[in-house]
Specification:
Elements lengths: L4 H10 L4 E5 L3 H14 L3 E5 L1 H7 L1 H14 L5 E8 L2 H10 L3 E4 L13 H16 L4 E6 L31 H11 L3 E4 L21 H10 L4 E4 L7 H9 L12 H8 L3 E6 L1 H17 L6 H22 L7
Parallel strand pairs: 1-2, 1-8, 2-3, 3-4, 4-5, 5-6, 6-7, 7-8
The structure holds glyceraldehyde-3-phosphate (G3H), 1,3-dihydroxyacetonephosphate and zinc ion (ZN).
Keywords: Glycolysis, Lyase, Metal-binding, Zinc
EC number: 4.1.2.13
Catalytic activity: beta-D-fructose 1,6-bisphosphate = D-glyceraldehyde 3-phosphate + dihydroxyacetone phosphate
């Protein structure tokens, strides 16, 4: 059934596991997440970005997720809006029936310009007021996602700062986090520790200077009762890049967030781990491979099936790696 995000994250905290939150845009991605969760008995967070709602259309996104709840009535499921850029966008999602919303006030409403602390508190407070009134959950964000070496926010067309960020903007300050949580009363806090959206996160396998898991520990020590959220947490598996490139793709060398680093973060209060890119990579590799090997096929179901299966395998792996087995 659809349940509250707060309840799901509280359970994860009590039982020391993390929940991957998968971005979904279409039928096959929803099916992939649900069947993976079903196989391992995991709880599910399906999240839709503003881009997803635009791509599919709001009624489709809503009803795809409701269909998932209907088809898997035994799985606890949260319908979450990812990266709301304004209180109005969040209100729209709440009106649609989302039980959880992210107000990303780390950036201005353009989704590009880093905001001030006071602006962030103000918009997040507004969303907490409207959401808590109806029992919905709120995720906020403090700090900007970005590569600590280059200052780039990553993904050009998604949510991310334009231009260069400086080091301090890209690392959430634990003291500020404590003030922010107290002032806003939000349920979950997304933090910046050097990850960024998209496939091009790190130019080498990340070490502590560019992926600051130590910062997670410092934040958790300061606000132990706040559920932490990691964005930009795809692992960008090398084998998925290899499949894409073997079958005509041209992806450059790149590295994601290693699963073992996420597992370490889960020990220090990270309960929700956002993953979109790994599903994109898995599906693209599978489609490229299928079509290259079957140039005579033209039934869309035939190439969507391996894409859905590849996405499912990624989801299942993350459920197991983050400790979700049997928690749903
Ligand atoms: O926020 C980043 C997610 O990867 C969603 O991306 O805006 O292209 O749907 P999107
Ligand atoms: P990835 O691009 O690493 O999958 O991150 C997704 C995300 O943070 C969505 O909010
Ligand atoms: Zn994100």
């Amino acid at each position: 059934p659809l349940i509250s995000m707060r309840e799901m994250l509280d359970h994860a905290a009590e039982n020391s596991y993390g929940i991957p939150a998968f971005n979904v845009n279409n039928l096959e991605q929803v099916q992939a997440v649900m069947s993976a969760a079903d196989e391992v008995g995991a709880p599910v967070i399906l999240q839709a970005s503003a881009g997803a709602r635009k791509y599919a259309g709001e009624p489709f996104i809503k009803h795809l997720i409701l269909a998932a709840a209907e088809m898997y009535p035994h799985i606890p499921l949260v319908m979450h809006q990812d990266h709301g850029t304004t209180p109005e966008v969040c209100q729209g999602a709440l009106n649609l029936g989302f039980g959880s919303v992210m107000m990303d006030g780390s950036l201005m409403s353009d989704g590009k310009t880093p905001s001030s602390f006071d602006y962030n508190v103000d918009v997040t407070q507004k969303v907490v007021a409207m959401a808590h009134k109806i029992g919905a959950t709120v995720e906020g964000e403090l700090g900007c996602l970005g590569n600590l070496e280059t200052g780039d926010a990553g993904e050009e067309d998604g949510i991310g700062a334009a231009g260069k960020l400086d080091h301090s903007q890209m690392l959430t300050d634990p003291e500020e986090a404590a003030v922010f949580v107290k002032a806003t009363q939000l349920d979950a806090l997304a933090i910046a520790i050097g990850t960024s959206h998209g496939a091009y996160k790190f130019s080498r396998k990340p070490t502590g200077d560019i992926l600051a898991i130590s910062r997670v520990k410092e934040i958790h020590a300061r606000i132990p009762n706040t559920h932490l959220v990691m964005h930009g947490s795809s692992s960008v598996p090398q084998e998925l890049l290899a499949i894409i490139n073997e079958y005509g793709g041209k992806m450059k060398e790149t590295y994601g967030v290693p699963v073992e680093e996420i597992q370490e973060a889960i020990k220090y209060g990270v309960r929700k781990i956002n993953i979109d890119t790994d599903i994109r990579l898995a599906m693209t590799g599978a489609v490229r491979k299928f079509l290259a090997e079957n140039p005579d096929k033209f039934d869309a179901r035939e190439w969507l099936k391996p894409a859905r299966e590849a996405a499912k395998q990624v989801c299942k792996a993350r459920y197991l790696e983050f400790g979700c087995e049997g928690q749903g």
